């Protein structure tokens, strides 16, 4: 029998289904091209990067670069990419583009070890709150304010305690605001 049949496609399928014509082999599914990952042309130390270096990253806005440089000037350092991406609320596709270019070197004192779970500021004991490494007066203000009502979020915490932006930025990913209880049900510390 010839390789292809002169019949129209419908007649050909009927003959193939009844076994009178061999079924043609199915074409192999298309495979994505294997592109070898090349090392990035440049990398930057996240904790020492300049504004211009940040702006080289795809999708990095001037506001993002300014924020990151401001944090750096305030002594804030990032221990890992997740902290950086969480702060900037970076979409996954941009996170993937940035990752090969980022290096995280810690400069100065040892970095804070990431906590398994964020510190719940509305329910933490006074001893647990000392992990924040805040001055006693600030911790006393936090305890006093949460006795009147629990904190809603970082913005509420910042407004009620008059915290500088750098302090609030340092809390991103490290604290939570679990069950907001008010007044008498909170333990007095």
Q: What features would you highlight for this structure?
A:
single chain, 189 residues, mainly alpha, two-stranded parallel ribbon, two-stranded parallel sheet, elongated, disordered C terminus
Question: What is the β-strand count?
Answer: 4
Shape, principal axes of CA atoms: elongated
Beta strand %: under 5%
Low-pLDDT residue spans: 182-189
What's the N-to-C terminus distance? 93 Å
Structural class: mainly alpha
* Order of adjacent strands in the largest pleated sheet: 1-2
User: Sheet bearing the most strands, described?
Assistant: 2 strands, parallel
SSE string: HEHHHHEEHHHHE
Count of individual helical segments: 9
Instruction: Please estimate the helix content.
Output: 25-40%
C-alpha-based Rg, rounded: 29 Å
Query: Overall pLDDT, averaged?
Result: 80
């Amino acid at each position: 029998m010839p390789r292809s049949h002169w019949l129209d496609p419908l007649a050909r399928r009927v003959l193939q289904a009844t076994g009178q014509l061999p079924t043609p082999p199915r074409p192999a599914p298309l495979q994505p091209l294997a592109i070898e990952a090349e090392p990035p042309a440049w990398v930057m130390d996240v904790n020492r990067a300049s504004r211009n270096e940040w702006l080289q990253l795809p999708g990095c806005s001037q506001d993002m670069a300014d924020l990151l440089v401001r944090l750096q000037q305030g002594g804030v350092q990032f221990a890992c990419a997740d902290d950086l991406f969480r702060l900037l609320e970076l979409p996954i596709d941009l996170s993937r583009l940035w990752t090969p270019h980022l290096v995280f070197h810690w400069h100065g004192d040892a970095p804070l070890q990431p906590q398994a779970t964020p510190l719940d500021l509305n329910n933490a004991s006074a001893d647990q709150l000392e992990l924040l490494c805040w001055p006693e007066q600030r911790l006393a203000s936090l305890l006093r304010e949460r006795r009147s009502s629990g904190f809603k979020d970082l913005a509420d915490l910042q407004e009620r305690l008059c915290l500088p932006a750098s302090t609030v930025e340092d809390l991103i990913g490290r604290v939570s605001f679990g069950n907001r209880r008010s007044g008498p049900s909170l333990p007095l510390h």
